[in-house]
Each structure stands twice: as C-alpha cells, then as structure tokens.
Amino acid sequence: QVQFVESGGGLVQAGGSLRLSCVVSGNNFRLYAVGWYRRPPGKERELVATIGTAGSTNYPDSVKGRFTISRDNGQNTVYLQMNSLKPEDTAIYYCNRRWGDLPWGQGTQVTVAS
C-alpha cells in the first residue's frame, strides 16, 4: 500500500519561502510521475506541480517561476520549493501520483500572512 507523508509547512510572511517534502512508501516510486496538489480554504483541490519519471516538470501559470518540484528516487521523496509566497498560496498541500489516484495523506498546512 502506497502512503504519502507530507511535511514542511508552516506560517510565513508574504514574499517568504518554504520547502515541502513528501516521503512515499512502497515500491516503484521511481516508475511513476508525481504531483503536488493544494486545497485552499473553501475551494477544490488543484494541481500545482508535476514531475515525470525522467525529471520533466510542469506548473500552472499561478505558480510558474515561483515553485520548483524535484524528486530523489533513492529516498522515495518529492520536494516542493516555494519562493515569493503570496497569501493566495495559503492551502493544505498534498502529494500523490500525477493523476491523484491513490489514497491521500494528511497534507501539510501552508499559511502565508500578508
């Protein structure tokens, strides 16, 4: 059973940075694309970054140039470096496979104060 354990969230001032980590249990981590998602207060979960098996990345315009996703296959870990944070980045952040088709972890809360 694959499990996702997110960490690294917290309270930060606008313009600040955070680095999120997600440890993935189970085998075959290196064989699938992974995504970071977020659920802002009162809104639906949305995809904010993806990374393929060969390291290709993709971002929506809302975070492009500010967020960077990376992965360490040896550590079964995916990271999200978030810079120039804005209050609208406030959300619970989750990781999952690219298609969000596995059980979700608890997520990690990111709060950006203006």
Tell me about this structure.
The chain is 0% helix and 47% strand. It has strands spanning 4-7, 10-13, 18-24, 34-39, 46-51, 57-58, 67-72, 77-82, 91-97, 108-113. It is globular and about 40 Å long.
Q: How much helix, percentage-wise, in residues?
A: under 10%
Q: Order of SSEs, N→C? A: EEEEEEEEEE
Quaternary status of these chains? single chain
Largest sheet: 6 strands, mixed
What is the overall silhouette? globular
Computed Rg = 13 Å
The end-to-end span amounts to 40 Å
- Helix count, per DSSP? 0
Low-confidence stretches: none
Brief overview:
The chain is 0% helix and 47% strand. It has 114 residues and is mainly beta.
Characteristics:
114 residues; mainly beta; six-stranded mixed beta sheet; four-stranded antiparallel beta sheet; 0% helix; globular
Topology:
Blueprint: E1 4-7, E2 10-13, E3 18-24, E4 34-39, E5 46-51, E6 57-58, E7 67-72, E8 77-82, E9 91-97, E10 108-113
Parallel strand pairs: 2-10
Antiparallel strand pairs: 1-3, 3-8, 4-5, 4-9, 5-6, 7-8, 9-10
